[in-house]
Amino acid sequence: MENPDIEMFAAKLVQLVRDQAIHDCYIDISPQAKAPESMRDKSILANSNLDDVKKYLIPRWVDAAIFCLLDAIDNQHIKLLYVTDDGRTVDLNDEGMWEMAGRYIEDNEEGWRVKYSKEAVERQVR
């Protein structure tokens, strides 16, 4: 028997994180997209350069999904508790102060990707 609470979480996760990230990535490479990152992404796809796809697009699209998850938590669409290594429970909706998505995506030394990732972090094209 399916647990309705788990099913509700699954629906929100898929719709608010996966589907939104896919939608954002489609917009990013649409003909109307003119942001510097979008122009670079479309050029990479047009030239079918696998090294550039691995270097730029895969991290960018993974970041889009993580951003969507954090944004859903920041905006109270998904309520999430995190249990620390020492057993404390942290309510990310309250303790995150509605700033986790922004903290994640910042491309300075305070941004979580720059601060914690062991993989290359693609910084904004300026």
Strand and helix layout:
Blueprint: H1 4-28, H2 36-47, H3 50-74, E1 81-83, E2 89-91, H4 92-95, H5 100-105, H6 112-116
Helix pairs in contact: 1-3
What does this structure look like?
By secondary structure, the chain is mostly helical. It has one domain. It has six helices and two strands. A two-stranded antiparallel sheet has the order 1-2. β1 and β2 form a beta hairpin. α1 crosses α3. The longest helix is centred in the N-terminal third of the chain and has 25 residues. It starts with a helix and ends in a 10-residue tail after the last helix. The mean pLDDT is 85.
For the biggest β-sheet, the strand order reads 1-2
| Average pLDDT level | 85
Overall strand count? 2
Number of helices: 6
Give the number of domains: 1
Main sheet makeup: 2 strands, antiparallel
Radius of gyration, Cα only, in angstroms? Answer: 17 Å
**H/E series:** HHHEEHHH
Structural class: mainly alpha
Bulk shape: globular
Low-confidence stretches are none
The share of residues in extended strands comes to under 5%
Q: Cα distance, first to last residue?
A: 52 Å
Helix content: 55-70%
